Amino acid sequence: MRLFLSSYRFGAHQNRLLELLGAPPGRVAVVANACDAWPSAWQSAVSSDLFPLRRLGFEPEVLDLRDYIDRPEALERTLSGFPMVWVRGGNTFVLRAQFARSGADLALTRLLADDAILYAGYSAGACVMTPDLHGLEPVDDPAEVRTACGIEPRWDGLGLVDRRIVPHLDSPTDPDGEARKLVRRYQSEGIAHWALTDDHAVVVDGGITQVLT
Fold first, then answer.
1. Three-state SS at 30
2. N or C: fewer beta carbons within 10 Å in the chain?
């Protein structure tokens, strides 16, 4: 299993991402469904990620999970044609719901277990891989799931890493310091977590997990 989980895009570790890929950059599936509750900003959010991927030599292709609702086999076939999937930030609860509705949660779990794909995700795209989404509600509104997806929010992550992730620690994107507040909460409750600045990343490469600072 290969995972690259960051706070913001490549963090300070784009070379480690390329090493994980193990091949020259090529096609990459770009999943932006964490932004589905913000239709007016969806396209600009996608476009903002395409440029840095292209600059690294990737050939990004947008994969909209809404095209695969209740079509999990078709989604898994599509994903299996990509060496890497790139899952951007947004609302973690909306992303989790779209993973469930399309079957991406099960497809990615199987493909990752077979080491058939590299998963790279940042912010919401990283948080969705953790065991549990509790604590994120001050920054990601669970109520957006009902309007964007028509279902109730889920509070479980995919559980492919063993602790929660707090992104955007001390970041300009978090002027109210919500990430720092969440770190204090997790510390007081004894909840294992990684607190990531926008330079940091968690890398899983086979049986080895590293936090890159």
1. strand
2. C
Residue-wise over 63-86: b if at least 16 C-beta within 10 A, else e?
Answer: bebeebeeebeebbebbeebbbbb
Q: Give tens-digit pLDDT for 50-89.
A: 999 999 999 999 999 999 999 999 999 999 999 999 999 9
Query: Amino acid letter at 102?
Result: S
> Which residues on adjacent β-strands are paired with residue 4?
120, 203
CA distance 18 to 166: 24
Q: What distance in Å separates the CA atoms of residue 108 and residue 93, rounded to the nearest whole number?
A: 17
Number of neighbours of residue 14 by Cβ within 10 angstroms = 16
Beta bridge partners of 185: none
Q: 154-184 burial, b if ≥16 CB within 10 A, otherwise e?
A: beebbebbeebbbbbbebeebeeebbbebbe
Instruction: Copy the structure tokens of residue 163.
Output: 């602790």
SS3 76: helix
Q: In which residue ranges of the chain is pLDDT below 70?
A: none
pLDDT computed for residue 155 by the predictor: 98
User: Residue 60 pairs with which residues in a beta bridge?
Assistant: 28
Distance CA 62, CA 54 (A): 13
pTM: 0.97
Cβ proximity of 87 and 46 under 8 Å? no
